[in-house]
Specification:
heterodimer, A: 98 residues, Folate-binding fold, two-stranded antiparallel ribbon, 1 helix, 34% strand, B: 419 residues, alpha/beta, FAD/NAD(P)-binding domain, 8-stranded mixed β-sheet
Chain lengths: 98, 419
């Protein structure tokens, strides 16, 4: 299985760490809604078909990625940065002080 | 007289084997039953058998979407053990072990249960301490457990690399002598035949496509072979639990389906006569009576219903095997395959009434379902017949996650791929 990292390009699955179901919504840290916390921690959609999930390119650029992958065929239809944008790399000028 | 016996063998040998009956009938499904069990794997078949045997409920159908034993009961690595830490698990799996010990007689079918022991290797002093603790917990509940020294381990498994220069030196191990292996297909066939002889209809190539409801209540299923109604509908579909429950309108469960791979080598002369597990990764191996080494390791680690895995795990499992048995570098791998495991959030199963009226749920076997086959069916049959759990499966509810009463033997938390 290859995952096409938007930053590094297609890389072997062994470079990535699976971080699980990307459908879950984390309640606000101060939330005391036990049902919402229970759903976030324990309940999963677990679909047979397209699955939203989070991976990290831990053996590469270390970006967190939002991946849509088919759990029946392992086919990947979309990979984007989890934050929804390309991380900003500001070009540093030679000789300039940081 | 028992159908399979030495006398029956001789009689059939003399008359050209004309007396054998098919092991189970191929009935057309009836319009209604008392109980429908969805899933013709080990757990579904044993559920049907114990419904008939222990509770006298014989108007039962087992619906299997493929052929009998085509799922995980024919895909596992056949280890049977009851070496758990937490009392709920220990009691349940020890009940299973006791049923295993008499299973061939009970079913009049040789399931080739072989109590060859299961040894967990410890590679650090801390790990050995942890095993001692688990062994003590087991003995406290009357289960057999023994700590072994490296010298004893070296005598037990001469082929293993037990030396201080090993990559991961062995400090000792926890042995359960009554653990072992069984012939997995025979377990499916034996339960199927024994259930069939008590009147259970085993309907193969019959895929459930939906549920029939009256109000909230489940009163039957629609299938590829027509509608079938029942007072009680029981699910024992392991890796397909998410898919089948979605047909019932239940979208979220504390379960993820993951793929686990297994491997078998060509037949070798007797090489190892116990089940051994590696403690510095995840690897387990035994040798079948045909001589093939059967082994496996971790899950692939991502959600999957594909029944096939990827190469990184293959490489990892082979590396772990060679760390323990360098001589197996010469052995050729015959086959590898994958099975879909229903991983729960605490690594323990779910056997319960509900979650809908008229429905009963048996799932969450992670990758330890084979050894549970007898007790799973026994407890599930009790739950279905009495509409309440037996005390052995009372802790294995679906709601335990809501209440915080999780049974997390490995202490991994809600990360299913790590259980």
């Amino acid at each position: 299985m290859l995952i096409t990292c938007p930053y590094c390009g297609p890389r072997d699955v062994s470079e990535f760490t699976y971080q699980g179901d990307g459908n879950r919504e984390r309640p606000a840290p101060a939330s005391q809604n036990l049902d919402a916390w229970n759903e976030y921690v324990y309940d999963r959609l677990n679909p047979a078909g397209d699955h939203n999930e989070v991976w990290q390119h831990s053996g590469g650029c270390r970006s967190h990625l939002k991946v849509v992958r088919n759990t029946l065929t392992h086919e990947i239809s979309s990979v984007v940065f989890a934050r929804g944008h390309v991380p900003h790399r500001s070009p540093t000028k030679r000789g300039s002080k940081a | 007289m028992a159908e399979y016996s030495a006398l029956a063998l001789i009689r059939n040998a003399l008359n050209g084997n004309k007396d054998w009956k098919p092991a189970w009938r191929k009935p057309e499904p009836k319009a209604s039953y008392d109980v429908i069990v969805i899933g013709g794997g080990g757990h579904g078949l044993s559920t049907a058998y114990y419904l008939a045997k222990e509770h006298g409920i014989t108007n039962v159908a087992v619906l299997e979407k493929g052929y009998l034993g085509s799922g995980n009961v024919g895909r596992n690595t056949t280890a049977v053990r009851s070496n758990y830490l937490l009392p709920a698990n220990t009691r349940f799996y020890e009940h299973s072990m006791k049923l295993w010990e008499n299973l061939s007689h009970d079913l009049n079918y040789n399931v080739m249960f072989s109590q060859r022991g299961c040894l967990n290797l410890a590679h650090t002093p801390a790990q050995l301490d942890d095993f001692a603790r688990r062994g003590n917990a087991m003995r406290h509940l009357g289960v057999d457990a023994e700590l072994m020294t490296p010298a004893e381990i070296s005598r037990l498994i001469p082929a293993m690399h037990v030396s201080p220069d090993a990559r991961f030196p062995i400090y000792g191990g926890l042995m359960q002598p009554r653990a072992g292996t069984a012939r997995h297909d025979a377990v499916a066939w034996g339960y199927a035949r024994a259930a069939d002889r008590r009147g259970v209809d085993i309907v193969e190539n019959c895929e459930v496509t939906g549920f029939i409801r009256e109000g909230e209540r489940i009163v039957g299923v629609t299938t590829t072979r027509g509608d079938i109604r029942a007072r009680k509908v029981a699910l024992a579909v392991a890796g397909s639990t998410g898919r089948v429950m979605q047909m019932a309108g239940i979208e979220r469960l504390p379960i993820e389906s993951h793929v686990l791979q297994a491997f078998v080598t060509e037949s070798l002369k007797p090489f190892i006569d116990t089940v051994v597990t590696f403690g510095m990764g995840h690897f387990y191996m035994s040798q079948s009576d045909k001589g093939g080494l059967i082994y496996g390791g971790d899950l692939d680690g991502y959600n999957s219903y594909a029944q096939r895995g990827n190469l990184p795990i293959v490489e990892e499992v082979m590396a772990e095997m060679l760390a323990l048995f360098p001589s197996l570098g010469m052995a050729r791998v015959l086959r590898s395959w994958g099975g879909v495991c229903d991983m729960t959030m605490d690594g323990s199963p779910i056997i319960t009434t509900g979650p809908l009226p008229g429905m009963y749920l048996n799932c969450g076997w992670c990758y330890g379902g084979f050894k549970a086959t007898p007790a799973s069916g026994w407890c599930f049959a009790h739950t279905i017949a009495k509409d309440e759990p037996h005390e052995l499966n009372a802790p294995f509810t679906l709601e335990r996650f809501h209440h915080g009463a999780i049974i997390d033997d490995k202490g991994q938390g809600a990360t299913p791929r790590l259980h």
